[in-house]
Amino acid sequence: MQSSSLRGKSSGINYRAPCTSAEDHPCEIFKNLRFWNTFFWPVGLNLREVHPGQLSLVEISREDMFTLVGQQHQRKATTLLNHLFRYHRCLVTVHLGDHLLIAHHQRLCDALVQSPSLRKLRLRIWSIDPRVLQSFAVALPRLKNLEELECLIYLEENFCEVLSEFLVNAGSLTTFTLWSHLLDAPGGRIIFRGLMRNASITTLSLHLRIDPNGKEIAEYLRENQTLRNLTLTADECATFDQTQTVLRLIICSIFRTTTLSNVRLEKFRMNEANSCLGALLFSKNQSLRDFHMVKGSLYTDAYPPKSALFHPWLAAFRKNKTLKKLTMELSCFSVEQCRSLSLRGA
Fold first, then answer.
1. Strands 120-125 and 325-328
2. Entry's SUPFAM superfamilies (predicted)?
3. The pTM is what?
4. Could you report the average pLDDT of every consecutive run of 10 residues in the chain (346 residues)?
5. What are the Cα distances from residue 152, in Å, to 49, 74, 95, 122, 127?
6. Which of 249, 290, 295 shows the shortest CA–CA distance to 269?
7. Any residues with CB less than 8 A from the CB of 345 and at least 6 apart, and which?
8. What sign has the CA pseudo-torsion 220, 222, 226, 229?
9. Which CATH code is given to the segment(s) 147-346?
10. What count of other Cβ atoms lies within 10 Å of the Cβ of residue 29?
């Protein structure tokens, strides 16, 4: 593409200019963000300053934005991204989604691995096109300085192997987030094999089906000594009763840990036995400082339990002296039980 086609909207701004970022002044690109975003906004991206002197390329949400964007505009945006990735050390965060990757995955991946300062990467790839995943399978092992990786992705076996190996060798990675509601048991075993060998991740967020992956989740939590912050969202397809066995394993691993300080559980639906076990183990836990459990239920019928069923949790809240913050839905309890909770510190 001719550079003049990009200069037209910018009164002669040269997008090929090198990064001028330094400790005492920001890059010249900060003066021209509106020009860059003229090309990025139509393809769902926004270039913005997140910290002084640091840029973040993030996705913006508009359901209809891609229907009117032609291939020529996508090519222009890709040309700018190619230069931005390769030459701007002020760029530290990148979000990429299907809309550009499907047509330009090879070019973008080739440029991304040359980024001098990339620290945070978010991939949203629901395409089942094997070429897109293959491009990232080649690129991922070369992103050796990543500190945060978020994958919203369709995971097939080959990419699971690549991701697992990346987790083993990612010594700088401290935060890992995985969204994959179709992850099956074989794929889960591959990924958790890599997680088990990682010693740098301190913050982990998993949004998975619990039934096929529960044993691996429980084993990982039981053995891990570096994790401090955990988010688990149960994207459940199995029946309520089918999930309770693996849910019990996860509950035991979470509350028996001595390293986790911040736990968020979402969409966890427990039967009475697991709820009582969770309350008992919670009462004995001495590492948790922040516990958050929403969008789930503590009992089979999901209605406020009778006092006899509620008593284990009330006793646990009173006995646990190390917790600093508790977040639970009021729908789990009756009005009288909520009043009892308010007396915890009395």
1. unpaired
2. RNI-like
3. 0.90
4. 47 79 91 92 92 94 57 89 96 90 91 96 86 91 96 89 96 96 88 96 94 92 96 78 89 95 93 91 96 84 59 87 87 69 56
5. 24, 22, 11, 8, 11
6. 295
7. none
8. positive
9. 3.80.10.10
10. 23
